[in-house]
Amino acid sequence: MVDGTKTLGIMLFTSPYGSQDADHVCRIAERALDMGYGVHIFLYGDGVHAQLAGQDPKMFYNVGAALERIAEKGGVIKSCVRCSQARGYVDGGYDEEEDRYRSSKSLDAVRIYSLYGFIDIIKDADTLITFGSS
Amino acid sequence: MDYLCMLITKPPHSDEGAERMCGISNAARDRSMGVAVYLIGDGVLCAKRHQHGHVGAHIKRALERSMSVYASAQDLRARGIAETQVEKGIVITEDIEGRFLKDAMERASRVISW
User: What percent of chain A is predicted at pLDDT more than 90?
Assistant: First the structure.
């Protein structure tokens, strides 16, 4: 167990189920939270598909359920609004009270956010790892 | 000593990810950096013994040069790779995430992932 002052930043660039990238993100994030680290995840590009509500894989690790567990444990998960809008996840404007863009298709655990969320993670994370970029 | 932590999710041979790991980790060692390589997902295929090509040779060389190489036990099992098929010196661990995080968060000056 650590003192919880360090934060792990994780970027995910690929969609779940097509590869194991999203599984790795979730497993590392959950383990980091269990060890007492802070975790910030940003979904970018096709990575925003990880936020889809109602995922129900029969044979694979359930990425949606894992993201919900991560948020319950205190992890912060944001997804890019432009990438989300392009893929049909945004169906409302920016909600100031909730500090997120509205979406009926996304998990509540994931906050659709501007690209500044991405920059904040780059600035604030003690360690940053990326999945899905080559 | 500067310490480089590398997380590899790519298999050898199908793209350049594992090859890059070879080049960079060797170069880092040449510059007297400590290096640890973590193999997860398809990255565990880099751990197999008797491979042709650069990756297998590099893993052997990395171990000879005191780099630490870890492989996920769960991901090896998922791919049907027995412990006896893994290059000697590679540490097989059930808690690859925990080991990686301890290194990446507390020890490493740089972390690279593929």
Answer: 81
Within a domain: A51: yes
Q: How far is B92 from chain A (nearest CA, A)?
A: 17
Taking CA atoms, what residue in B is nearest to A6?
B105
Residues, chain B: 114
Report chain B residues whose CB lies below 8 A from the CB of A125: none
A102: containing domain? 7-131
User: Which two three-digit tokens encode residue A45?
Assistant: 């590009």
CATH number at residue B99: 3.40.1260.10
Between these two residues, A134 and A76, which has the higher pLDDT value? A76
Entry pTM: 0.91
Residue A1 within a domain: no
Domain range for B43 is 3-113
Give B68's strand partners.
Answer: B36
Element containing residue B106 per DSSP (H, E) = helix B96-106
Please state the domain count of chain A. 1
Longest CA–CA separation in chain A, Å? 41
What mean pLDDT is reported for chain B?
A: 89
DSSP B11: P
Specify the pairing of strand A94-95 against strand A100-101: antiparallel
Summarised one tens digit per residue, pLDDT across range B7-19 is 999 888 777 767 7
Q: Residue A54 has which token pair?
A: 């109602």
